[in-house]
Amino acid sequence: KGTLYLVPTPIGNLEDMTYRAVRVLEEVHTIAAEDTRHSGLLLKHFDIKKPLISYHEHNKAAKEEPLMELLLQGHDVALISDAGMPAISDPGAELVQAAIEAAVDVVPLPGPNAALTALIASGLDTREFTFLGFLPKKSSHRQAVLERVATYEGTLLFYEAPHRLQASLQELYKYLGNRPIVVGRELTKKFETFVRTDLAALQQADNWLTIKGEFVLVVGGAVHGKVSEQEENPIAASDYVSAVTMLME
Ligand code: SAM
């Protein structure tokens, strides 16, 4: 049988590709990639020429069989996603389960991941944390997730898309109360920014709609297992902040 390699790829900075990732991608028979055009550019950069099979959220059920077929025929397959670790807020978990069920070896490579990259520079507690990925689309589901973690004392990690950032920051404040938050934007890239503030302060920010980029939200845990209070005194007008100023400078 072949081996299924799980290969992380850079989250912005191509120098974060590991030597081992390059070697494994050069050696496997086939690379399963989330977006073959996007990954084609990465592979070109490292001069890797390999057959690519697309494996993404909407075709992963159908693509499992041909990929398992290759593995069972004795061919090594590498799974990559558009950025960071496959199977972390990206497709991969089902293929790993199928491989395990078929007694195919699964070999994970360490490498870039946006959540852990933000966490280690956040200044918040790194001893215990929970990664929640993207909050669910449905508002009642979001509420359920946030209520479930509202008394958790470890640090909370979220991914968020720019157009949902403001709404999510409002909901975090609504269900968790005021907490320290670190917004990590465009990590490893030219405009990498960390905003270290609290949720109440971010409620005052405007201009969210003009904010672009990729974001990780690192939120402090509950203190003594209690949902945090909201601010008693609304922030004075003089403390009014612009999201653009906070994130773009
Ligand atoms: N598999 C990836 C990983 O291991 O981090 C995550 C993929 S998920 C589809 C994409 C989300 O990860 C983005 O919306 C953003 O929240 C976060 N992300 C990815 N790259 C980032 C970066 N360079 N800076 C900040 N956040 C990033």
UniProtKB/TrEMBL annotation:
Function, as annotated: Catalyzes the 2'-O-methylation of the ribose of cytidine 1402 (C1402) in 16S rRNA.
Catalytic reaction annotation: cytidine(1402) in 16S rRNA + S-adenosyl-L-methionine = 2'-O-methylcytidine(1402) in 16S rRNA + S-adenosyl-L-homocysteine + H(+)
Keywords of this entry: Cytoplasm, Methyltransferase, rRNA processing, S-adenosyl-L-methionine, Transferase
Species this chain originates from: Veillonella criceti
GO molecular function list: rRNA (cytosine-2'-O-)-methyltransferase activity
Compartment(s) of residence: Cytoplasm
Domain Tetrapyrrole methylase as annotated: residue spans: 3-202
InterPro entries: 4pyrrol_Mease, 4pyrrol_Methylase_sf, 4pyrrole_Mease_sub1, 4pyrrole_Mease_sub2, rRNA_ssu_MeTfrase_I, SAM_MeTrfase_RsmI_CS
Family, similarity comment: Belongs to the methyltransferase superfamily. RsmI family.
EC numbers for this chain: 2.1.1.198
Main localization (coarse): cytoplasm
Protein name as it appears in the record: Ribosomal RNA small subunit methyltransferase I
Listed GO CC annotations: cytoplasm
